[in-house]
Task: inverse folding
């Protein structure tokens, strides 16, 4: 009985070394690898003529050998503020979210991408966790989001300048695929985004932060803290039971010492939960001897939570008082403006609604 040939992996899942090996095996020069990938990753500006001369049959052979990009656009939403949310359907029918956000500079945009289908972290105020965890994304599926967002930005007359891993999933639980994807997006020979233009966020997975430190890629780290004390944090982020606040910050200290990058503390203000002025003082005390920036976030309501609670954003008055208290206590803090309040902009909202 004949043995079925293995299905080739998608081109975007291949490292440069793997594609080079394929080139050599089929009689092509390994030097052709980077020119091919530059076009695949969209690093070449629209309309620019390729400078590299490739064999006439190479591109056709690659297209016939490797599966085409698997992610297709399932739905697209555009907010009045210009934020664009994409729901991408993967080859197995599952969906994942990516977001393009206009920058203050009219020619720039920032992208937010996912690392997993769903999420297992159980953060009570997040829509993604309500649909559960399905699987990790491959490195190629992560890169596909980057390519979709780069294309979306160019259509709008902008350039995709930064990428943040703040979409669906916990990046630190999929570093096996996140790190290769980052390398391909950031490498000047490939996606050409730049290492400093990438931020990896975590809910506080200490071993993941340590692994990222060892990888030494030079990307930025963001910690989704959302509470200055373990009791409050555990009530809204179950992972707080495993990793206390101090352990998380000490791991971030080690990352900062190795990378030289200032860590961002993400803090989503929830009315009556984590927005008191005493909590602001406690938060400021946590970072007063650290070179960390606090990024206050406005909450986009997501309906009834897993615990049967309905969270609300802090009032603007309380938000401004919280911010002022942080600064009075010596913390470097900023309020990030809400994005896409008129669409399903919060993480997991669009996927949850379409799934329903």
Result:
């Amino acid at each position: 009985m004949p043995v079925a040939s293995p299905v080739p992996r998608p081109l975007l899942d291949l490292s440069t070394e793997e594609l080079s090996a394929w080139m050599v095996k089929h009689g092509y020069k390994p030097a052709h690898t980077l020119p091919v990938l530059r076009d695949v990753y969209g690093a070449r500006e629209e309309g620019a003529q390729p400078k590299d001369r490739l064999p006439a049959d190479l591109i056709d052979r690659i297209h016939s050998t490797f599966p085409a990009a698997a992610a297709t656009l399932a739905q697209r939403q555009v907010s009045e503020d210009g934020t664009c949310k994409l729901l991408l359907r993967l080859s197995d029918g599952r969906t994942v979210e990516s977001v393009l956000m206009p920058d203050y500079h009219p020619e720039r945009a920032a992208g937010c991408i996912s690392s997993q289908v769903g999420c297992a972290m159980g953060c009570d105020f997040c829509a993604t966790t309500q649909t559960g965890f399905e699987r990790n994304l491959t490195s190629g599926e992560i890169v596909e989001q980057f390519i979709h967002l780069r294309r979306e930005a160019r259509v709008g007359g902008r350039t995709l300048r930064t990428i943040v891993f703040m979409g669906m999933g916990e990046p630190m639980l999929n570093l096996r695929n996140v790190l290769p994807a980052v390398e391909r997006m950031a490498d000047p020979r490939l996606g050409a985004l730049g290492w400093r233009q990438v931020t990896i966020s975590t809910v506080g997975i200490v071993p993941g932060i340590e692994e990222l430190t060892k990888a030494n890629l030079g990307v930025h780290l963001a910690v989704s803290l959302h509470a200055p004390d373990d009791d409050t944090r555990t009530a809204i982020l179950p992972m707080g039971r495993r990793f206390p606040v101090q352990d998380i910050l000490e791991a971030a200290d080690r990352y900062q010492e190795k990378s030289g990058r200032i860590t961002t503390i993400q803090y989503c203000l929830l009315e009556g939960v984590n927005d008191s002025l005493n909590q602001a003082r406690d938060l400021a005390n946590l970072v007063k001897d650290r070179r960390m920036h606090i990024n206050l976030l406005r909450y986009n309501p997501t309906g009834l939570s897993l615990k049967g609670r309905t969270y609300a954003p802090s009032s603007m008055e309380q938000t401004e008082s919280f911010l002022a208290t942080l600064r009075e206590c010596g913390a470097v803090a900023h309020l990030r403006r809400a994005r896409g309040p008129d669409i399903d902009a919060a993480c997991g909202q669009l996927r949850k609604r379409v799934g329903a």
Summary: The two ends are 44 Å apart (CA to CA).
